[in-house]
Structure formats: C-alpha cells, structure tokens
Design brief:
With 273 residues, the protein is mainly alpha-helical. It has ten helices and two strands, in the order ββαααααααααα.
C-alpha cells in the first residue's frame, strides 16, 4: 500500500483477491440457499406427518418413502420400471429433438419454408400430445412405439419453435458477410445458423426434457403395463401410497438430473453465457 498526494493506493493483486473472495462467498451462499429449500420442506413434511398434524395415510413421512424405495430396489421390482421409462424417454427425446432442430434451422434460414410450415406448427402446438394418444394408439398400437412417438411429439414443438427464433434473431450482418465471401448452403447451415441459434435452441431442449417427463407419466398411466407412470397409477389404485410417492420421487429426481446434465452441456457449448 503506497501513499501519494494524500491518496491511498491499494495493490491491484490484493484488490483482485478480495473481489474473488467476495464472489466465492456469494456463490457459497447461493449454494446453501439452493440446498436449504428442499431440506426445509422435507424436514417440515417429516414433522407434520410424524406428529399427526397431517394424515400419515395420505402423506407418509419422507423417511418411510425412502425406506420403501430401498425395499423395492432390493426386491428388483423398481429397476425394471426405471429402465423401461428411461428407454422410452431417451428414444422419444431423440426422435423429437433431431427433426425439430433440422427443420427449425431450415425454417429459420429460408422464409418460404417458414411460411409454409408455420401455420401447421401453430395449429398443432396447442393440442396436448397426450390428447392425441388415442389416435397414436390406433396408428401405432399399444406397444413401445406409441409411447416413444407420444414423447417425440411433445418434445418436437418447443425445440422447433426455439430453434426458428434463434436463427431469425441472428444478426443479419453475419449473413451478409457470409454471402459476400461466397458461403454455400452447408456453411450457412453449420457455421452460422447452428451456432447462432444454440443459446435459444438449448432453452427449447431444456423445456423439451421437462415435457418429456410429464408426457411419459401420462402415457404410462393410460396405456402401459410397466414404467414409472404405471407404477404411480397402479399404486394409487391399490392405495399403496408409499409406492406411489416412490414413483413421484423418481420422476422428480430424473427431471433434476436431466436438467443438470443439459445445463452442463450448455456451459460447455456456450462458455460465455
């Protein structure tokens, strides 16, 4: 620390270290807040259930639900439901995301395609995919294909809409520069449209994974004999509420994990965001 003309000059390195420590403390505080809210809810739920303030028949204590989860896992019943649901989710997700990205990029780049497909997308998007399940079952039967198609349909719309928005929001300067340098269609597609639309596209994919989980539960409740949704519905029907809550916990867990994975990909692909 130096004194010059009555002013105190601080060491730039020390200032930077102090700022870094402040950011670290702030990040740790945010992490504590993130963890504390679910813990607080679980502790409150446990207390209310154990003391009888809420009916434990309908709201069993979280510790009892966790115990049931381990029992079902030890018996091997649970892994079959998890495996088939994850297969349906991943297959439907891929089947919905890839065509949505490709078509969304073309629609964003070429206005004739955008004007041709937009009315169809706007007309079909408000219809819940699960409402189309009877038609899907008539076309594809009650096997695995119908569940996968149902999930793909629910994922398709948020991804394609966000992809189109991402492409159309690209600064026109980049397109003009590419044309001036003789870029071909492949260059426009892979070097401009795809990277330029990634921030908005990934938000659509994030929405799509959440919708996929909602859809698989509904689809397995209505037309399946296995899966997490089937487990939830049959447990409810038999008034085995601990097992029902196990299914709900699994859906919540996988939704959170998928979201973390996609956020990790987003940080890798868009480090500046």
């Amino acid at each position: 620390m130096n004194k010059s003309n009555g002013n105190v000059e601080r060491d730039p390195v020390a200032v930077e270290q102090e700022e870094w420590k402040k950011r670290q403390r702030k990040n740790r505080f945010k992490q504590v807040l993130t963890i504390s809210s679910p813990i607080l809810i679980l502790v409150l739920w446990e207390f209310l259930s154990r003391t009888g303030i809420v009916d434990a028949r309908f709201f069993p204590a979280p510790t009892e639900i966790i115990g049931t989860l381990f029992t079902m896992a030890a018996e091997g019943e649970l892994f079959g439901h998890i495996g088939i649901s994850l297969f349906r989710i991943f297959a439907g997700f891929i089947l919905g995301v890839i065509p949505a990205i490709v078509l969304g990029l073309f629609m964003g780049l070429y206005s004739p395609l955008r004007h041709f497909f937009s009315p169809l997308i706007m007309a079909l998007m408000p219809i819940p995919t699960i409402a189309l399940l009877p038609i899907i079952l008539m076309i594809f039967g009650i096997g695995e294909v119908s569940k996968i198609v149902t999930i793909a349909g629910s994922v398709f719309f948020p991804v394609i809409i966000n992809t189109v928005v991402g492409v159309t929001n690209i600064d026109k300067t980049y397109l003009d520069v590419a044309r001036n340098y003789g870029a071909n269609s492949k260059d426009f597609f892979f070097k401009i449209a795809l990277p330029g639309s990634l921030p908005v596209m990934l938000e659509g994919i994030q929405m799509g994974q959440a919708i996929a989980l909602l859809t698989i539960v509904a689809a397995e409740m209505m037309g399946a004999n296995s899966g997490i949704g089937y487990l939830i519905w049959t447990s409810y029907s038999a008034f085995l509420l601990n097992e029902m809550y196990v299914g709900l916990v699994l859906i919540s867990f996988f939704g959170y994990m998928f979201s973390l994975i996609l956020r990790g990909f987003q940080k890798k692909l868009l480090p500046w965001k």
